[in-house]
Amino acid sequence: MRRQIDFIGKRNVWFTISAIVILIGFASMAIPGHGFKLGIDFIGGLLTDIKFEKAVTTSGVLDAMAGAGLQDAQIQIASADNTQVILRTRSLTQDESKAMNQALETKLGKFEVLRVEEVKGVVGNELALKGLFALVVANIGMVIYITLRFEYKFALTGIAALIHDVLVVIGFYSILGYEANSSFIAAILTIVGYSINDTIVVFDRIRENLKSMRRESLAEVINLSISQTMTRSLNTSLTTLLALLAVFFFGGQTIRDFTVALMIGITTGTYSSIFVASPLWYLWKKREELQAARPVVEVAAAGAVAGSPRVQKKVSAPAALLVEAASGNAAEEKPKAPRKAGAKPSVRRGKSKRRR
What we know:
The protein is built from eleven helices and six strands. The chain has helices spanning 11-29, 40-43, 58-67, 94-108, 121-149, 152-176, 182-212, 218-250, 256-275, 277-306, 317-332, and strands at residues 37-38, 45-52, 74-77, 84-89, 111-119, 179-180. The strands form two sheets. It has a four-stranded antiparallel beta sheet. A two-stranded parallel ribbon has the order 1-6.
């Protein structure tokens, strides 16, 4: 028989690992000049649409921009013949603009500037609000569905695991120095959907095992459920990561940031579905059981001491049964009333003990 990992017994280890990773990410944000960087989609910048005389590549344009000190520029090929390019940069001074044009012409040949637009920060704020609204709506929808399909405890602990995943991705983005743009919002929404899917698989197995394993403890049921689904979760995540690695190395610079966010999110999503969501649900259930058992113990203890307990507050059905049992035991232990004069003592059959 394969030995099972005590996921629930070691829950403090998993929680500590998550806390350390998240704290490191937040600490990196406090470093001056580092931190979580917002791209031009959020803070505004310059959009330049140019057309070259010959076809160019994304990597070639990026190298030219890096030569002008604009390695953080976003590049998009906008035509089928690879001659039209849209550049997104921060707001440039006149000298920086001249240096950019000179670097592009030197490395890629002559080009024509079709348009230059200033992207306002107001547009970035609107984009951020829409992204946040989409994330909130998605979470509300998942809470409603999981509550109807399972129970609200599963829903809320699943959302807590999603918040964990988002914080880890933000922290790694800060550590690696990547900029958050519109593609970052798309990556976060994708991660949320992928991670909750893994978590639901584990929750569904827990629910099924609870029906068939009534004699085992809750921790044993959860450990077995995680063990039964862990291989499936790991295989699915590894397959997805292999595809993302191919996109990262061969997909080009424009989608590399998006790919990095997905790889981090899928990895931490798999971790949270195994080591975070289920232990959180276990803690909630155990706390609920302790709170339900507390009045039962108090009432039973009061009944045993008082003999005939008088309960002034409402208790649960198990508590009422304990009170009744305690009351019955107390009644049996009451001394019998003295016999009337002339009454014959009752004789018991069988062996009798002599009284001294």
